[in-house]
Amino acid sequence: MPMTEIRNAQAAAAPVLQVDGLKKHFPIRKGLLRRTIGNVFAVDGVSFSIQPGETLGLVGESGCGKTTVGRTVLRLIEPTGGSIRVRGEDITQLSRKALRPYRREMQIVFQDPFSSLNPRMRAGDIVGEPMKIHGIGAEGGERARLVARLFERVGLRPQQMRNFPHEFSGGQRQRISIARALALNPKLIVADEPVSALDVSIQAQVINLMMDLQREEGIAYLFISHNLAVVEHISHRIAVMYLGRIVEYADKVTLFTRPQHPYTEALLSAVPVPDPLLKREKRMVEGDVPSPVRPPPGCHFHTRCPYAQDRCRIETPALKPVGEGHLVACHLR
Length: 333
Ligand code: SF4
Fold this sequence. Notes:
The protein is of the alpha/beta class. It folds into two domains: 3-105 and 186-328, P-loop containing nucleotide triphosphate hydrolases (Rossmann fold, 3-Layer(aba) Sandwich); 111-185, no CATH class. It contains ten helices and twelve strands. It has helices spanning 3-13, 66-73, 96-105, 123-133, 141-153, 170-182, 200-217, 228-234, 252-257, 262-269; strands at residues 17-30, 35-50, 55-59, 81-86, 89-90, 106-109, 188-192, 220-225, 237-242, 245-251, 320-323, 326-328. It has an eight-stranded mixed sheet with strand order 6-7-8-3-9-10-12-11, sandwiched between helices. A four-stranded antiparallel sheet has the order 2-1-4-5. Strand 11 and strand 12 (326-328) form a beta hairpin. Helix 4 (123-133) packs parallel to helix 6 (170-182), helix 5 packs across helix 6 and helix 6 (170-182) runs parallel beside helix 7. The model is unreliable at 3-11 (pLDDT under 50). Iron/sulfur cluster binds next to loops.
């Protein structure tokens, strides 16, 4: 087989995104000389992969590092360690110029559709901007047609291209954000709490739109949320994060029916169940997430875990398999 065909075959089999041992430590600086006096261990050795057309849900409380993971895999912020592979190619150290073709393939949708859209730009120009930057479609004619198609794909009318962001509802603004993310035919979209700022009644509409687009285009999503109920609907697999580390990783059904980590159990107990007979035992986690500046030693969760033992305060539990594709970081499993 010629070398180019071998490479193409490898690329077809490779995950859209493969992350290994990803770390992001933010230095804390002080004084006139800005000396480093410590670090915020925002992401501390995170590994996962996402296949084409798949959604990986990344869940955890606010401050657990999930947003930093999303931005680091896109190299919007630079990793401290680990590697990021896009369709098998290591992009961790690529220069900005060499990174450009990969940037086209990986887009982001932010949480707040009110602040993520430029209020002075017309909606059509916002959606067409990535095409302009990457030289796609002639100004006016062809690009305007492409933008109009994108508006229709996300459930907006092409006539609305002339409107400004303030003339749209929250749900419609998030549709504009999604259309902008789709403009360059991405293989992966990092969706960072994309429905958290929306009314509950609108959340399902936006999630259903994202699922339709995935079915039509084979787009993969890294879907970041603090809310397991939201993630349940859209995800194929789910990674649960706590203080910079993944503590449990499983397909959706396994995670919801047979959670193994005490933190996942606690998060799940807060998710409403439609059938009262299936009511889950309430296991609320006490207290707040500790500071990522000085994370507790051993298992980071030991300060809030009802099952913590002496060993948990000293030894870091490895993320190990407990079933097919099911990984858990807990000494008791
Ligand atoms: Fe709880 Fe120990 Fe398991 Fe951590 S390792 S989740 S503290 S039982």
